[in-house]
Amino acid sequence: MIKTLTIIFLALALTGCGSLGRKPQVAPIVIEKRVQGIPVFHPPLPDPIKLKDVTWKVLTPDIVEEYLKDLKSGTAPTMVWYGLTPQEYKDLAEDMAILKRYIKEQKAIIEYYRENIHEMVPESKKEE
User: Fold this and answer.
1) Residue scoring higher pLDDT (15 or 106)
2) Long-range contacts of 56-64 (CB under 8 A, 24+ apart)
3) What total of structural domains would you count in the chain?
């Protein structure tokens, strides 16, 4: 009989209050789906370029003679002369036009992406 009472006592001690039929309170699980936009960095555009004026002189025999005369007398400023043939000048002008076109096209592409980036990257939304 002592064995039986011991077994019953141990069974009650081990089960504790769990046998009273109470269920532990568990908070309900809430599942949320969030679509978050990607942060987009818009670097600032570079400062506009500020070109300096360049004075072009076309050398003719008269201008060269006058300059050499003034140089010998000491009244002419010391200048360095660069020479281009008409074809080289034409090539230089065409290259500058190509660079100008390229810069305009690159700027148009950058402005397109700046204006339309919100359509490509979704904004933050919360769905339940």
Assistant:
1) 106
2) 59/83
3) 1
Sign of CA dihedral 82, 88, 93, 95: negative
Return the C-alpha torsion angle 73, 53, 88, 95, nearest 10.
170
- Closest residue by Cα to residue 86 from 58, 107, 126: 58
Domain that residue 6 falls in: 2-127
pTM for the model:
0.48
3-state secondary structure 66-90: HHHHHHHHCCCCCCCCCCCCHHHHH
Residue recorded with tokens 């980036």: 117
Give the per-residue pLDDT at 42: 77
Judge whether 6 and 100 are in contact, CB under 8 Å. no
